[in-house]
Amino acid sequence: MRKPALYSPSSRAGASPSGAGAQLDPVADAPEAPRRAGRWSRFRAASASAASRPRVMWSAMALLAALLAASVWQGGVSGSKALTQKDIDAAVLRTLTTQNLPSRAARAAEKIRPAVVRVMSYGKDAEGKEVEQGVGTGVVITDKGIILTNLHVVQSARSIKVVYADGAESPATVTGAQPQNDLAVLQAQIIPDDLIAATMRSTNDLVPGEDVVAVGFPFGIGPSVSSGVISGFGRAFKSPEGVQEIGNLIQFDAAANPGNSGGPLVTMDGEVIGIVTGILNPTSHRTFVGIGFAVPIESAASAAGLPPF
Prior knowledge:
Largest sheet: 6 strands, antiparallel, barrel
Radius of gyration: 24 Å
Mean pLDDT: 80
Distance between the termini: 23 Å
CATH class of the largest domain: Mainly Beta
CATH architecture of the largest domain: Beta Barrel
Low-confidence stretches: 11-56
Structural class: alpha+beta
Number of helices: 6
Number of domains: 2
CATH topology of the largest domain: Thrombin, subunit H
Order of helices and strands: EHHHHEEEHEEEEEEEEEEH
Strand content: 25-35%
Helix content: 10-25%
Number of strands: 14
């Protein structure tokens, strides 16, 4: 049974109505364990310390669990001494220094990857033959095959094809558009049974400086991943070939180039907060100089007729 669009709750403790809020991964400093605390209290304190590092939390916890199990077994069977705080500290340090763990950006990219598609538009050449006229990116927002992309990626195309993350292909048609935000809604005609849709997240409590990842097909290469931060909100942009200015955009500095258009801008949790729509470049080379723009997902989702957050 197909599921509706996925939304992530965005309100966080301490977030103000105006949109200012805590960082994406707020972690409070773990209080020092009392000197007379038992083994379980010390274990909890050590776990909190490991949790303050998202990159190592799960591996450290798994290692600690194994050590605890070994300690219980040894203590109960062979009479060996119980696991000490020194043992726990050594295990955590060993994990931090020896394990090659994925970064937050890598985990975010892996989470969004199944929902990212290559969008290919086709036209006719002078001899009437079908030719590829552009490559962009799209993101699946429901498992019914609804895909968001940029209008300029598919505008004037005679036919459209999308390529899923597993390499499967499908014809697609434009079922909606929001020209004022350069957005198009596609409907794939062939829908994989295991299609995974992205989770969308409100931008209301995000602030400049928060980490983001952009995934797409720059110059047709990809899927490619770049990371950076949100540089600002409420920006306006008009492409060199465009006649209409787009407002209320997210500015970001994760690398984007032609071909990234229509791709998702996501948080470190892999949740979509915007659709990449353009880059600012004072030259005619159309390459990235550090300023990219994305349409907030609130506007993008409304183009598909989805309910607000």
